[in-house]
Amino acid sequence: MKKPVVIGLAVVVLAAVVAGGYWWYQSRQDNGLTLYGNVDIRTVNLSFRVGGRVESLAVDEGDAIKAGQVLANWITSRMRLP
Which residues contact 54 (CB under 8 A, 6 or more apart)? Predict the structure, then answer.
């Protein structure tokens, strides 16, 4: 009578360990979505509140970007007060 209880308990513990390992493995996976493609627009007319020239580009063609990321900086010497 004691042997079936021990076997049953061992099966339950083994199932719990397997389920816990599976849950841990799934929680460590990156669920981000990455899409690849091309933007067909090559020229865009932009409008700014202040005039100036582009000082530097922060990204190159083919770089991955995120929402809110700075893409370019412009010369701000005219905007500063003397």
Answer: 72, 73, 74, 75
